[in-house]
Design a protein that fits this description.
Elements (H helix, E strand, L loop, with lengths): L2 E7 L16 E2 L2 E2 H10 L5 E6 L3 H11 L4 E4 L6 H7 L10 E6 L7 H10 L5 E7 L8 E5 L2 E6 L6 H4 L3 E10 H9 L15 H7 L4 E5 L11 H21 L3 E2 L12 E2 L4 E2 L4 E2 L4 E2 L4 E2 L4 E2 L3 E2 L4 E2 L3 E3 L3 E3 L4 E13 L4 E13 L4 E2 L4 E3 L9 E3 L4 E2 L4 E3 L2 E3 L4 E2 L4 E2 L8 E2 L11 H18 L1
Parallel strand pairs: 1-4, 1-6, 4-5, 7-11, 12-14, 13-16, 14-17, 15-18, 16-19, 17-20, 18-21, 19-22, 20-23, 21-23, 22-23, 23-24, 24-25, 24-27, 25-28, 26-29, 27-30, 28-31, 29-32, 31-33
Antiparallel strand pairs: 2-3, 6-10, 7-10, 8-9
The structure holds uridine-diphosphate-N-acetylglucosamine and calcium ion (CA).
The site of uridine-diphosphate-N-acetylglucosamine (UD1) has 28 residues, from strand 1, helix 3 and strand 10.
Catalytic activity: alpha-D-glucosamine 1-phosphate + acetyl-CoA = N-acetyl-alpha-D-glucosamine 1-phosphate + CoA + H(+); N-acetyl-alpha-D-glucosamine 1-phosphate + UTP + H(+) = UDP-N-acetyl-alpha-D-glucosamine + diphosphate
Pfam family, one: Hexapep
Organism: Gemmobacter nanjingensis
């Protein structure tokens, strides 16, 4: 049966104390919204609709960055979760099957949990995701008998006895799309908050003789982000899980608690990750590669047998083929390093292609930016770039060519050639000794004064 998703993301998130809409705050390098969209994507939804409001432009841009095809509807005024779902109606026109409602600020719902909800739809017209709360606080309370759900009472509207219930509403709800839209269309707002509560669809459905049910999950999955403290808590929870998963998958983490993963980091079996390594978005590390201490990687690919760091930075577009060696204080951006390239120390390679087996000496810089445009440096196979070579792009160094240390290379170097672009050395015999004597005499004269 087809499934569609509605992701509620219109709220401002006042308690974040931020100019940024809440769902754009990041956990593991990705906006909260992407976490929710990723969880939902596991259901292969036919349609995804994001309900934006505060910061709608930025929120829709982020949503489209994750899923180009997703629909965006704008809820101009935040009149409640039920009102928010009702805004999705035009974007869901003609869609059949089930609809799952997720919150953009609740990043950790597992795909398995959503699947369990869809499965429970065989028994109930409306399925709500609940959890046993350690501290039920202001969550909505589920009035249920076993799996059968009678209704949801919001904290503000609950009696003392209802507030004592610890089975709480996560906010995730699932029903037939047409039924859900029909129900949210008939919601009232006669309640303590004066809002159109999505939670009221349970009671409305039951009045029509339909059944509602609860599926439960671990409280950790329902962690919602409302404050910066909860954002930090979410980050810690994500990292703890990602580290445990990496270890489980056969990755060595020397000091797991110091390694930070992004939502999409992929690390192969038998890779070794040293202490204090940070992965930004878009990194894949192949099996058996080693990332030494204090490296920062983003948008890059490290192949099998390669080693990086300590203290290296791989920026977007860094592509390291097998057995590449990148050493300390090296920065690589938008550059392809073919098999066996060695870049040992203190080097910047930006917008470059480096052929297999080439050695890049310490202090080499690709001068890729002229202040207006970026240019490419092309270095062939088995070339030798002497230490402190400045490669002023666009420039090409051929296969097997050599550049002298300290050269400023402004013109192409043919294959097999040596290029020297530096001042010729001059030697003055005995001059150093004379210079020192003069200087010492000067200092002695000054000290007498
Ligand atoms: C909601 C539930 C509550 C549940 C809790 C779980 C209702 C009425 N209450 O309460 O039972 O225990 O979540 O966290 O649904 N949003 C919109 N437009 C709106 C209102 C909200 O897009 O008009 C979005 C928010 O941005 C947020 C989500 O919906 O992502 C939840 O809204 P929020 O106001 O935080 O609901 P709660 O009062 O926490
Ligand atoms: Ca909330």
């Amino acid at each position: 049966m087809p499934v569609s998703l509605v992701i509620l993301a219109a709220g401002q998130g006042t308690r974040m104390n931020s100019d940024l809409p809440k769902v754009l705050h990041r956990v593991a390098g990705a906006p909260l919204l992407h976490h929710a969209m990723q969880a939902g994507a596991a259901l292969s939804p036919e349609r995804v609709v994001v309900v934006a409001g505060h910061g709608a432009e930025a929120v829709s841009k982020a949503a489209r960055a994750w899923d180009e095809a997703c629909g965006i509807v704008v809820q101009a005024e935040q009149l409640g979760t039920g009102h928010a779902v009702a805004q999705a109606a035009p974007a869901l026109a003609g869609v059949s099957g089930d609809c799952v409602v997720l919150y953009g600020d609740t990043p950790f719902i597992r795909p398995e949990t959503l699947e369990a909800m869809l499965e429970a739809r065989a028994r109930h017209a409306v399925v709500v995701l609940g959890f046993e709360a350690r501290d039920p606080g202001r969550y909505g309370r589920l009035i249920a008998q076993g799996e059968a759900l009678e209704r949801i009472v919001e904290f503000k509207d609950a009696t003392e006895a209802q507030r004592a219930i610890t089975l709480c509403n996560s906010g995730v709800i699932c029903a037939d799309t047409a039924l859900l839209l029909d129900l949210v269309g008939t919601l009232g707002n006669d309640n303590a908050a004066g809002e159109y509560y999505l939670t009221d669809v349970v009671e409305l459905a039951r009045r029509r003789g339909l059944s509602a049910g609860v599926v439960t999950c671990d409280e950790a999955e329902t962690l919602g982000v409302n404050t910066r403290a909860q954002l930090a808590e979410a980050e810690a929870a994500f990292q703890a899980r990602a580290r445990a998963e990496a270890l489980e998958n056969g990755v060595t983490l020397t000091a797991p608690e110091t390694v930070f993963f992004a939502l999409d980091t992929v690390v192969g079996r038998d890779a070794i990750i040293g202490p204090n390594v940070v992965f930004g978005p878009g990194v894949t590390i192949e099996s058996g590669a080693e990332i030494r201490a204090f490296c920062h990687l983003e948008g890059c690919h490290v192949s099998r047998g390669a080693d990086v760091g300590p203290f290296a930075r791989l920026r977007p577009g860094a592509e390291l083929a097998e057995d590449v060696h990148v050493g300390n204080f090296v920065e690589i951006k938008n550059a392809i390093l073919e098999e066996g390239v060695k870049v040992g120390h203190l080097t910047y390679l930006g917008d470059a292609d480096v052929g297999e087996g080439t050695n890049i000496g310490a202090g080499t810089v690709t001068c890729n930016y002229d202040g207006v445009m970026k240019h490419r440096t092309r270095i062939g196979k088995r070339a030798f770039i002497g230490s402190d070579t400045m490669l002023v792009a666009p420039v090409t160094v051929g296969d097997g060519a050599l550049t002298g240390s300290g050269s400023v290379i402004t013109a192409d170097v043919p294959a097999g050639a040596v290029a020297l672009g530096r001042a010729r050395q001059v030697v003055k015999p005995g001059l150093a000794q004379k210079l020192f004597e003069t200087l010492r005499a000067l200092k002695a004269a000054q000290n007498k004064d």
